[in-house]
Amino acid sequence: MRGMWLLMAVLSAFFSGVTAILAKCGLRKTDSDVATALRTTVVLAFSWVMVAFAGSAEGMTAISGRSLTFLLLSGLATGLSWICYFKALALGDVSRVAPIDKSSTVMTVLLAIFLFAETQRLAVKLIGTAILTAGILLLLEPGRPRKASAGKGWMFYAVLSAVFAALTSILAKIGIEGVASDLATAIRTAVVLVLAWGIVFAKGKQRLLRPLDKRELGYIALSGVATGCAWLCYYSAISTGIVSVVVPIDKLSIVVMAAFSCLFLKERLTRRMAGGLSLVVAGTLMMAI
After folding, report:
1. How many CA atoms lie within 13 A of 140 on its CB side?
2. Exposure letters 152-173 (e unless 16+ CB within 10 A, then b)
3. Total structural domains within the chain
4. ∠ at Cα 156 (192, 274), nearest 5°?
């Protein structure tokens, strides 16, 4: 049903926006790699609870080798995207990192048109993508970062996050064919968990686990739950919906992030940024309606 996958895409956007704010609150003192590994542990537990509840585990034996391969590759791309994204969040402002990360929408839409032949209303999609791109460029407000410790590093990690996020959506669309969305989410999260903890131990950061701030740990755990909800909604939408429509709607999480970053993180929303957000919404709605 069209209405159902659209609703799932909207819910995915909401939970994704909440995830970024909660994660930012948990990154004030906590190392970003450690935080990513801890969040992934929560997401994995959440995912398998949902699989058990839905009774989807029986579908494991029916997954084809092709689907499993693409799900694993999607999990790898997701892990790399997460690691880069939360590294960028640790270094820069949410309102500056998010627009670059969300540029993955443009890449995903173009790849979906080319790879999956999603050419319905092609002219409208291309115009919407152009408006979306203009909005993202406006959101990349020049000037001095509001976070005193922010350097140039955050932009490098944000760009990498966008590239890997675009690959995630495309690989997942291929791998999720014939696989329950909750089971696909659990499988992919397992790959992310191995990658995340592998990086923690490879860098010798496991020693940072003991002095963790309990309050920040709570925010990290909540961000993991929000991520689990976002993923379940997103892959439910992408399994039955149109990728080039679902992805832009999901990226409306940037509006949620902007609102909460102003309310709770005290990050200032300028006129230029407000204009950029308006264009992002307009471009997204043009492709979705």
Report:
1. 14
2. eebbebbbbbbbbbbbbbbbbb
3. 1
4. 100
Two tokens at 31?
A: 């190392």
How far apart CA 102 and CA 99 sit, in angstroms, is 5
d(CA 241, CA 247): 10
Can you say how many angstroms the Cα of residue 2 is from the centroid of all Cα atoms in its chain? Answer: 23
pLDDT tens for each residue of the chain, 289 residues long: 567 888 888 898 899 888 888 887 888 888 888 988 998 999 899 888 888 877 888 888 888 888 888 889 988 998 899 889 888 888 877 767 877 877 787 888 888 888 877 777 788 888 888 888 888 888 776 544 444 444 567 888 988 998 998 888 888 877 777 788 788 888 888 999 999 999 999 999 999 888 888 889 999 999 989 988 887 788 778 777 777 678 778 777 878 887 877 877 777 777 888 888 888 888 877 776 6
DSSP letter assigned to residue 178: T
Q: Where are the alpha helices (DSSP H) in the chain?
A: 2-25, 32-54, 65-91, 94-102, 104-115, 122-139, 153-175, 181-202, 214-240, 243-250, 253-264, 271-288
Q: Which structural domain range is residue 108 located in?
A: 2-143+150-288
- Coil vs helix vs strand at 92: coil
